[in-house]
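As the next step, I selected for study one protein, both as residues and as discrete backbone shape codes, as given directly below:
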Amino acid sequence: MPEGIKLFTGNSNRRLAEEIADYIGVPVSEATVSTFSDGEIMVQINENVRGSDVFLIQSTCHPVNNNLMELLLMLDAFKRASVGRITSVIPYYGYARQDRKVLPRVPISAKLVADLITTAGTDRVLTVDLHVGQIQGFFNIPVDHLYAAPVIAEYVRNKYADNIVIVSPDAGGVERARAFARRLNASLAIIDKRREKANVSEVMHVIGDVRGKDAILLDDMIDTAGTVTNAVSALKENGARRVIAACTHAVLSGPALERINASGLEEVIVTNTIPMDNKQERCKKLTVLSVARLLGEAIKRIHEETSVSSLFD
């Protein structure tokens, strides 16, 4: 058991926290996170944390605002309990899509959330696959940005080793798809799409050769699944043999599961940065990979003050 390290979690993704704790070899420490009758969140840390190296594991997924408030209140409780250092482990960082002003008089919510987390008292942040990398710069504290690509790539390599093409669902994801394709020594294609409004996308055409290949659609998240299911038709029309979707964050809101079930997707590969609840029962195409080992190893290295970036060498 690493000395001086304590793992805590809110209510967002306790199963992942327990998997991380098993990997590191420490228990999940005791904290009470509940609500008053009017819906206000109540937090109490149930053990001594003075001088400890605390890692708080909390995804800001659905219900986003509740989970975010849990994170902020737990951070404040730790700060007032005189911890040695607090690291916020945020496997899924909510509000990340609102990272710039795309219309007049709109907020930059990703920056506001970063300010809230910092002000609440965290000393550093550990997160996985931010929607855009520049969100790291919204924090004035150290940010360790992990990538789930090694976890997903290992699975894809073992199951779809031959004749694959990595497909970016839009121009913004090309860098991610290119790095993933290089890891698998695969070719690259891009979906040219035009988004008319939020959560609605229209596929235009495919740039690159997908004919006769297994197309792996790679993105950081799947929300309503409109983008990936629209892309299936375009890829099939261009001769793709099979279409597989792969993403880190399975938001899967609204009609997502129904769209996936009705689509021509062979499989949807996701990770457990967001809890699945009963979604696998409702959609048999979902394959969930664990990032517990990745996060656990990063937590150990942060605690021991050794390199985190070497995880991806």
Remarks:
- DSSP finds nine helices and 14 strands in the chain.
